[in-house]
Design a protein that fits this description.
Layout: H1 2-119
Length: about 120
């Protein structure tokens, strides 16, 4: 009977030690589960931020490409207008020379007129 009582006591001690170890394992498992949940949440947030950043990047890239197309169009228009201005400036310069020539002819004709009037 003593042997059975000793075996029972020893079994109870081993049972208590196993329960403590089981509680310790449960605690460790709970801590790791909490870490996994936290990391899963962080991963979800990071993926959402990445999707938002990717969407913003696409919008900015599209706006940049549109701006570059508009810039090319403005440059073409600028070149066309610059050529038109050059042509107009050439015409004005030519017109100024023509006016100068006409003015010289007018003065010469006036001088001839005065000479002819003086001769009469």
């Amino acid at each position: 009977l003593d042997e059975t009582a000793n075996a029972l006591d020893q079994a109870q001690v081993l049972n208590a030690a196993m329960e403590r170890k089981a509680k310790q394992f449960d605690k460790v498992i709970g801590e790791w589960k909490q870490k996994v949940d936290s990391l899963t949440y962080d991963l979800d947030c990071s993926q959402k931020e990445t999707r938002n950043a990717s969407s913003d990047l696409f919008k900015v890239k599209s706006a940049y490409e549109e701006s570059m197309l508009q810039l090319d169009e403005v440059r073409r228009e600028n070149k066309t207008l610059s050529n038109e201005i050059k042509d107009i400036m050439d015409q004005i310069s030519e017109g100024g020379r023509s006016i100068h020539e006409i003015d010289k002819i007018r003065k010469r004709l006036e001088a001839e007129k005065l000479e002819l009037q003086a001769a009469l």
